[in-house]
Every structure is written in structure tokens, then in C-alpha cells.
Design brief:
This protein has 146 residues and is an alpha/beta fold. It contains five helices and five strands; from the N terminus they run E-H-H-E-H-E-H-E-E-H. The protein has a five-stranded parallel β-sheet, with helices on one face. The protein binds 1,3,4-trihydroxy-5-OXO-cyclohexanecarboxylic acid. The site of 1,3,4-trihydroxy-5-OXO-cyclohexanecarboxylic acid has 10 residues, from loops.
Length: 146
């Protein structure tokens, strides 16, 4: 069966390209989404994209992904460090989530060192810039089915 990936970007990632370019680079969210889509398709998978600044909307989206998407690649933004609700949604629907952070959160402020997602994720990549998203897609491509 074709693997179907949902790429979810959380709060403020709609500002990619404008926001703190020294930390997050100059590519826009549209650039990142197009890159991820073509990378997934080149590996025989399908990828849809979603972004929201709202915690509840992200929870709804994770819940609704059940039965539609086999995997999620998610950069939860600042909700990584605060959201038990997003963690519970992932656990609740048994979503296979690969966590992506563009920056190296472990070399930044201490409040970014804790993630509510890492221990329940199928993998995590930090500090690799936009190629980190592609690394997540590669990992999913290589994962055994089921
Ligand atoms: C981020 C890191 C988070 O700490 C921050 O709040 C973000 C982006 C990253 O991609 O490096 O919004 O998830």
C-alpha cells in the first residue's frame, strides 16, 4: 500500500523565510512544502501539507488523520515544549509521527530542551535545517509497513 504522509507545521512556521532567517533560513513554507511533496513522490509516497497556529486545530488534524494517513511528519513549533494535548492526540490515534525541528533546540534556551513529543515519536531530527524534513521522509520511506 502507498504510504501517505501528512506534513504538519505548527505555530509561526507560516512565517518561514521572513522569521529569524539566521535561525530558520530563507526558504518559505510554500518552498518547504513543495520540496517535501516532490521528495515523497520521488520515493513512491504521497504527501499532503497542513499548517496552523492553533493548538486545538492541530489536535483536530491529528485526530482526523487516522485511517487517512499512514505517517505524520510534524514540526510542532513552540507547542513541542508545552502541549500535552498534542501529545495525547498522537497517542490517542496511535499516529506514527516523525518530529522535525529546523534549529537545534538543545543548543538554544533551556525552555526548548524539553519535548512532549520526542519519546512518543518514531524519530526526531533537530538542527539540520530544511533537509531535516527530507530526512524524516527518507526514514518513513525505509520503514517496514504496518
Ligand atoms: C522549532 C523550534 C521551536 O522551539 C520553536 O518554537 C519553533 C521552531 C524549529 O523548527 O526549530 O517555532 O520547532
Amino acid at each position: 500500500m502507498t504510504k501517505k504522509i501528512l506534513l504538519i507545521n505548527g505555530p509561526n512556521l507560516n512565517l518561514l523565510g521572513m522569521r529569524e532567517p539566521e535561525t530558520y533560513g530563507s526558504q518559505t513554507l510554500a518552498d518547504v512544502e513543495a520540496l517535501c511533496r516532490s521528495h515523497a513522490e520521488a520515493k513512491g509516497m504521497m504527501l499532503d501539507c497542513f499548517q496552523s497556529n492553533h493548538e486545538g486545530v492541530l489536535v483536530d488534524t491529528i485526530q482526523q488523520s487516522r485511517g487517512v494517513y499512514s505517517h505524520i511528519v510534524m514540526n510542532p513549533g513552540a507547542y513541542t515544549h508545552t502541549s500535552i494535548a498534542i501529545r495525547d492526540a498522537i497517542i490517542g490515534v496511535e499516529a506514527k509521527v516523525y518530529e522535525v525541528h529546523i534549529s537545534n533546540v538543545y543548543e538554544r534556551e533551556e525552555f526548548r530542551h524539553h519535548s512532549y513529543i520526542s519519546d512518543i515519536a518514531i524519530g526526531t531530527v533537530v538542527g539540520k535545517g530544511i533537509p531535516g524534513y527530507l530526512q524524516a521522509i527518507d526514514f518513513i520511506a525505509e520503514m517496514a509497513e504496518g
